[in-house]
Amino acid sequence: MSITTYDEDILPEIETLVPRDVAAYVAGNGLVDETPGAPAIVRDISGCVALIGPLQVCWDLNLSIPSAVISLKVGPVTVISGEISPAHPCLTFKGSYGVAKWDLNICLRIPQKSLTLSGSACATFVGCKMFNIVLFRWGRLLEDDELEGGELEGGDSGNGVGLGVSYPAYQCMKLYSGTTYCSSKKEKSHSDGNQWIKRCMARFNIRADDINNIFASDSVPRGAIQWG
Predict the structure, then answer these.
(1) Angle at alpha carbon of residue 9, lines to 100 and 118, rounded to 5°
(2) Most confident region among 39-53, 146-160, 184-198 by mean pLDDT
């Protein structure tokens, strides 16, 4: 499992799209173009990982099936999304939006109880990264508080566990506004951290699309608001 950084463009075959071209790409690839105000789907576990520049991948995981809705965001805009399940365990996103472009493969690995990401992504003026990482684990592997993947942008994985950090840890949530909320005490497990996130969202009227990243930390980041 690794992340490799490149200064050069490793996706020269993909041209950068302007926003008006995204609808045609989405329609041609059988994907969903999500619009602001669309009703949220309640899932068991949600999270996001910042990939490069403004590009991030997010998931809403339903453990009862299991299945997941995977979304690709550029800043606060959800560009495309799709669903993975036991019948269709992998999803490929290939395209561009604004300053970002990508060729990514996300898979639901049921025997390993994990979501994995492979492929490449680039951002203008930033460079490119090649990924082969575990995005998220659940069940027994998750309770072991182990995470593979190497260093992600921002120093945290966005799925509730900062890389190299195991519970007990402060559960934190960073918004696009720049505000960061963290638990007032270290949470004992990922499950406790997930419950804190739900309470914090309710207390401060935070919507899912307000959240830039979710992570855990050994210490409270400077300037963070501690609550709960």
Answers:
(1) 70
(2) 184-198
